[in-house]
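Practice problem 4.
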């Protein structure tokens, strides 16, 4: 399956990562990858890098590993193609403008029949490529479009969390729906199922979360294939698999996390007893 990684930091920090090393955490060495991408928020815009080739063959990846931009929010994706040709248009993350803000989306899983699902509309937004993931992004933008009725007002976090949570529930009915979504203000991470190496079957968890705080501005996070430059103070990492020996928290199936500036702001779970509960942190 594809691999997801996101960083949210209180202070602008340089996220340095080896895409090939990250992929090797959960896939055998030498397995073919079908593309890679990384999106870095810079003020009110996004710097997007994507290629429909294996990261191991890319000079651009080598450049980003040492010279990647400093950011407070980054989303990256490594593709293992299950639907759609190996092409730039099918390479994640996907980026669209809505209400004067750049929205970024990356998905891990399979959503067969999404384009024919009655609960997901594609009237306003249409995919450029042919992946189920981009169809999902278009459907998500359709869901939240009404909230962003003005470029001068950011919808409340509770409104956005509720809309994204309902959208995620519809996706789970189709198949594994792990995704990362950022709207220029907050990062939303939804955990579902993924193919587990031990069983070869789709099961939770689909995402893991690590929250770090430090008093020493000289501290640096380092892991196999990943580092966060000193000065972050507070940083949140979300990945398909744990990347360090620390205690990463697995997201429950159907759990949605909203984060900003390195902190979890709220969570929403799929458990019926908690489905209507908004829990600010």
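Answer key:
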């Amino acid at each position: 399956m594809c691999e997801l990684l996101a960083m949210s930091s209180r202070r602008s920090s340089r996220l340095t990562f080896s895409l090939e090393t990250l992929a090797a955490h959960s896939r055998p060495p030498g397995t073919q990858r079908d593309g890679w991408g990384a999106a870095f928020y810079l003020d009110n815009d996004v710097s997007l890098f994507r290629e429909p080739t294996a990261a191991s063959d890319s000079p651009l990846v080598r450049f980003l590993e040492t010279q990647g931009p400093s950011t407070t929010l980054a989303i990256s994706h490594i593709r293992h193609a299950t639907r759609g040709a190996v092409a730039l248009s099918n390479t994640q993350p996907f980026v669209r403008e809505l209400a004067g803000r750049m929205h970024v989306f990356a998905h891990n899983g399979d959503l067969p029949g999404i384009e024919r699902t009655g609960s997901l509309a594609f009237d306003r937004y249409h995919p450029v490529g042919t992946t189920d993931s981009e169809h999902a992004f278009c459907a998500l933008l359709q869901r939240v479009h009404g909230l962003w009725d003005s470029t001068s007002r950011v919808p409340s976090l509770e409104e956005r969390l509720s809309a994204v949570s309902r959208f995620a529930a519809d996706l789970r009915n189709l198949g594994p729906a792990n995704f990362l979504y950022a709207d220029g203000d907050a990062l939303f991470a939804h955990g579902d199922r993924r193919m587990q190496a031990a069983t070869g079957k789709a099961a939770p968890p689909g995402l893991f979360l690590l929250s770090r705080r430090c008093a020493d501005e000289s501290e640096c996070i380092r892991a196999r294939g990943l580092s966060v430059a000193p000065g972050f103070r507070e940083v949140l990492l979300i990945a398909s698999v744990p990347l360090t020996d620390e205690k990463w928290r697995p997201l429950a199936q159907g759990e949605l996390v909203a984060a900003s500036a390195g902190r979890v702001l709220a969570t929403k779970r799929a458990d019926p007893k908690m489905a209507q509960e908004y829990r600010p942190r």
